[in-house]
Each structure stands twice: as structure tokens, then as C-alpha cells.
Design a protein that fits this description.
The protein contains ten helices and 14 strands. It is an alpha+beta fold and 306 residues long. It folds into two domains: 165 residues, no CATH class; 88 residues, no CATH class. The protein starts with 8 loop residues before the first strand and ends with a strand.
């Protein structure tokens, strides 16, 4: 694995949805999330991180150093145990709190730095811990500092460029659920929510300082992250999500580890606006995206991918 990154980054992702539900709200009947005061659509950071994790898992298939910690069907404690085994402690997740602390203390009396070894294993083996950080309950139970790892890559909530108008679409099916129902009806009714079209913007941050001091997030990891962002909807097709695509990834690179300018100054250089005459956008071509590269702060460069 390559050396940890040396430069701070900020980035902007532009993605869109056509006739789909990008992120349903379970507290609102799975309607697309929106800001009730303004009507702007919202997609959570957790949703986007899930897509990135799934992309990495698909293309790397549990390759050494690129396992996924938060994944479907795998208890977190099972992965926690792998870290403790590396430090010479078996069945850590099954121990009571006080018993685990005693075992850890015993290993440390033998000259083993349990905290360092567990952190080394978890960061070295799990891409999403190395990238986004994690809260690992078994490590917290053992009172280890590595139980809460702050990752160098953070995402905000995505917000639509324009207000959205979710539509409720009534659907029917000829397959009846039960035999009793089949005697009384020929079809069953259902509904789904869609957004006819929306373009979303989300902003993110990459801290070289945390990469160096905490997780070891590397240049190779960074390139995989960019690749995963650009392709995060490509392996996640579903009728409910409609046609979704990342349209552009705009990356700002600082010359230094701590950065050369506030993030907001860089984000303000990115402008997304409807083209003249477009009242109800229905495609990406209805927008104009510009980056004011001529007014970037000293020490910052811009790279556009998509």
C-alpha cells in the first residue's frame, strides 16, 4: 500500500436522478427526503457512503487491505474480534466489559500495546475505517482509544439545486399475496414515490493531517475513492432509484497538509444554474456548471472528473 496522503482536499459531487427515489425517508412512508421549509431534496451522507463502500467491495472483492467493515450480513463484533486476535486476544466480543479490560491489562503487562495493534489491524485491513473512520463497540467496551477512529474523509448532506416535487405513483400487480385474497380480487394495488428529475450537490473533505496521524489513508486509497465516487451508482441499479449518475466530481487540491484556504472559498467558486428559459429541469443539460478557476486562492489547484 502506498504512503499516506500529503495534501488536503475538498471536493464537490454533482449527481442526478430521473424518475426515481434517491434516498427514501422511512419516517415518511419512504418519500424522497426533503427540506420541508424550502422543498429542496436531501440525500444523507450515510446513503452516499453506503454506495462508496459497495463499489469498493465489488471491485476489490475483499482483497487484502480493502475489506469493508460496515457491510450487509456481517456482524461488526465479528470484525472486531479479528482485530483482537491480531493482538493475541480470543473471543473479545463475547467477554463482559470487566473481563475484557483485565485481559487487555494482562497483555499490556506482557509488553503488548493492544491499542496500537488493534488500531493497526483495523485501519490496515478495512478500507472504510481507513477512509471514514468508525465506532467499534468491542474496542469501546475494552476502553481502548482505537474504539473511536476519526476518518480523514467526510461528506455532508447532498441538496438538490432546485426544489423537488415528489410524485406518488399508484401501481398494480396481477400476483395476489394469499389464496384467500385470490378468491376476491384479481390484482393488488401499491404505490411508489419518484422524483421526475433532480440534480444534487454534495461537498466533501479530505484531511491529510488525520490520514497521517490516525488511519494511514494513502494515495492509492485516494484514487480508489475518486473512482468509487464516480461509479457509486453503476453497481447499485434498482427500479426504485431510477436512473442515477454522478455527472461531475470537482476536486480542489491544496499544496500543504493543513491547506491554503478555507473550504467555503473553494466551494463558492463552483456555480450550478439553470440555463435561460428552463422552467422545469428534466436533464443535466438543462444546467450550466462553472468553476471560477481564475480566482482560486494561491496554493490550490482544481481537477474536474466526470
Amino acid at each position: 500500500m502506498s504512503e499516506y496522503i500529503k495534501n488536503r482536499y475538498e471536493f464537490v459531487i454533482l449527481f442526478d436522478v430521473e424518475n426515481g427515489n434517491p434516498n427514501g425517508d422511512p419516517d415518511a412512508g419512504n418519500m424522497p427526503r426533503l427540506d420541508p421549509e424550502t422543498g429542496y431534496g436531501i440525500v444523507t451522507d450515510v446513503c452516499l457512503k453506503r454506495k462508496i463502500r459497495d463499489y469498493v467491495e465489488t471491485v476489490r472483492e475483499d482483497e487484502k487491505g480493502y475489506r469493508i467493515y460496515i457491510k450487509d450480513g456481517v456482524p461488526l463484533n465479528a470484525s472486531d474480534d479479528d482485530g483482537f486476535i491480531y493482538a493475541g486476544i480470543e473471543n473479545a466480543s463475547e467477554m463482559k466489559n470487566e473481563d475484557l479490560k483485565k485481559v487487555i491489562k494482562q497483555r499490556e503487562s506482557e509488553g503488548v500495546d493492544v491499542d496500537r495493534q488493534v488500531k493497526e489491524f483495523m485501519c490496515g485491513n478495512f478500507f472504510d475505517i481507513r477512509t471514514f473512520g468508525a465506532v467499534m463497540t468491542t474496542m469501546v467496551k475494552g476502553n481502548l482509544n482505537c474504539g473511536q477512529i476519526r476518518g480523514p474523509v467526510q461528506l455532508g448532506f447532498a441538496r438538490s439545486i432546485d426544489p423537488i416535487v415528489p410524485q406518488e405513483v399508484t401501481i398494480t400487480r396481477v400476483a395476489i399475496t394469499t389464496k384467500a385474497d385470490a378468491e376476491n380480487k384479481d390484482t393488488e394495488m401499491g404505490r411508489k414515490y419518484i422524483v421526475p428529475y433532480a440534480l444534487y450537490r454534495v461537498e466533501g473533505y479530505v484531511s491529510a493531517n488525520l490520514a497521517r496521524k490516525v488511519t494511514g489513508f494513502s494515495e492509492e486509497d485516494l484514487e480508489l475513492l475518486w473512482q468509487a465516487i464516480l461509479g457509486m451508482f453503476e453497481f447499485d441499479r434498482a427500479a426504485a432509484r431510477g436512473k442515477m449518475a454522478v455527472r461531475e466530481l470537482i476536486i480542489f487540491k491544496h499544496d500543504t497538509e493543513l491547506g491554503c484556504a478555507p473550504a467555503w472559498k473553494l466551494f463558492d467558486t463552483v456555480s450550478v444554474a439553470r440555463k435561460d428559459g428552463v422552467v422545469s429541469p428534466r436533464c443535466y443539460g438543462d444546467y450550466t456548471v462553472t468553476v471560477d478557476v481564475d480566482n482560486l486562492p494561491d496554493g490550490v489547484t482544481c481537477r474536474r472528473m466526470g
